Amino acid sequence: MQVSNLIEEIKPEVSFEVKANSVIYFNRTYFESIFLNLLTNALKYRSDKRRLKITIKLQEFEDKTIVTFEDNGIGFDLATVKPKIFGLYQRFHNHPDSKGLGLYLVKTHMEALGGSIDLESAVDEGTKFILTFNKIYAEQGSLH
After folding, report:
1. Are 86 and 106 in contact (CB under 8 A)?
2. How many helices (H) and strands (E) are present in the chain, helices listed first?
3. What is the separation of C-alpha 63 from the centre of its chain, rounded to a whole number of angstroms?
4. Three-class SS string for 46-100?
5. Which residue, 1, 12, 25, 82, could crosslink 78 as a Cys pair with Cβ 3.0–4.6 Å?
């Protein structure tokens, strides 16, 4: 099922905390892939107990931009999965469409261009992904 169809069916509540003149220097294709993977995961791993809420925040600093992508889905038990969470073919839920590629790609894309990703999560509370985009890396001409 396409993401647009999932959004129409699920009707998540999405909020943005982004200043109008904010800029992220990053490869557009990688950026789109990162957000598509995070959005798809939020939709797939939503809780049946409540309406899906997604919050995206952007904070700019002198040397970096931090974007948080947070949902109120089923979450992870970080004590058991954190060391493997961004590994290739790692699956932590029994969703039929799960392939274990999405978070691996997100981490690979972020690190390939000098960024990083981390997360906070709790079972049945949700997950927050913290994406750090390094402005210094972008200014050194590493992005095309």
Report:
1. yes
2. 5, 5
3. 21
4. CCCCCCCEEEEEEEECCCEEEEEEEECCCCCCHHHHHHHCCCCCCCCCCCCCCCC
5. 82
- Of the CA atoms within 13 Å of residue 8, those in its CB half-sphere come to 5
Query: Which DSSP helix (H) or strand (E) runs through 106?
Result: helix 102-112
Q: Give the pLDDT confidence score for residue 3 in this predicted structure.
A: 87
Predicted TM-score (pTM) of the model is: 0.85
| Half-sphere exposure of residue 46: CA atoms within 13 angstroms, side-chain side | 19
- Between these two residues, 97 and 82, which has the higher pLDDT value? 82
Give the pLDDT band of residue 144 (cuts 50, 70, 90).
Answer: very low
Model confidence band, residue 18 (pLDDT cutoffs 50, 70, 90): very high
Give the E-state strand segments of the chain in sequence order.
13-17, 53-60, 64-71, 116-122, 126-134
Spatial CB neighbours of 44, under 8 Å, sequence gap ≥ 6? 95, 97, 98
